[in-house]
Amino acid sequence: MSRVIMGIESSCDETGVGLVRLHDDGAVELLADEVASSVEQHARFGGVVPEVASRAHLEAMVPTAERAFATAGLKLSDVDAIAVTAGPGLAGALLVGVSAAKAYASALDVPLYGVNHLAGHIAVDTLQHGPLPSPVLALLVSGGHTQLLRVDDIASKITEIGSTVDDAAGEAYDKVARVLDLPYPGGPPIDKAARLGNGSAIAFPRGMTGPRDAKFDFSFSGLKTAVARWVENVERDGGEVPVNDVAASFQEAVADVLTAKAVKAAKEQGIGTIVISGGVAANSRLSELAAERCAAAGIELRVPRPRLCTDNGAMIAALGAHVVAAGRPTAPWEFSANPGLSVEVVSL
Predict the structure, then answer these.
(1) Residue 46 counted as an annotated binding residue
(2) pLDDT value of residue 43
(3) Reported pTM
């Protein structure tokens, strides 16, 4: 008999509630994916304000859940299990989701699973492309995380093989957007400007690509600083900053390093499939260059549609479904949010 899994996501500035159906054959079907974003409330600060995010989650949680059930044509009583993001993320924001999940699970008397936000970004691909091969290499790129992960089992075994040593790629996008007087969050406006620019116009540095650098780690702090210094020099000399060329050259530097390291890691690990996930996965140049390099290397590339790349409840419901299907234990009732939860801990 199929089971309905409810997923709750509240790790940062999106309140997400997703519903999926876990079929007897292990297939996971998306029924509803509703998101309430507080990004506009943070825009004037140029970044996420934790207290504002927590308050927004409190206000949005129940209405978002109600929309999800209306979209799916289901009732609360149809839920068979609940999965909630336990970490990583902002402590206060996570606590809102965990508290809501415990309330729903207690009222409905259904199993509760505390799961990993980062693993959810990988699991969401199964809603579009079906089961993940084993193993698969995941390139996780978002505002807070940039990691290369070997996934042997999405429900239980994820191994980090590379990570950023400073800024995440999405964080660098936000900071460069600020330098160029582009809106927050920086990903979409930089991507848009880059389409009108020349990615070869400015030779920005490629971080962590030297012979003595960790071959699968990333660094974007130096690139961000290089962009800021370049723009400052142009302005100091009285010139007009070529925003489109700067955006394109910056974006090319990011995509170049991300895709080169992902393909290299896949080859060394003997892995034939790469999944790119996280908010930055929606970037046009990243997906374009990844497709080119994966095709040349004979590697299958999977990238979820943009809606599934950003934070949402569907990804947590999808991961919850895989955890349920694998027969993993439920979370201890006293569990709490863990802002620093390791990606290698898929479920509590």
Answers:
(1) no
(2) 74
(3) 0.95
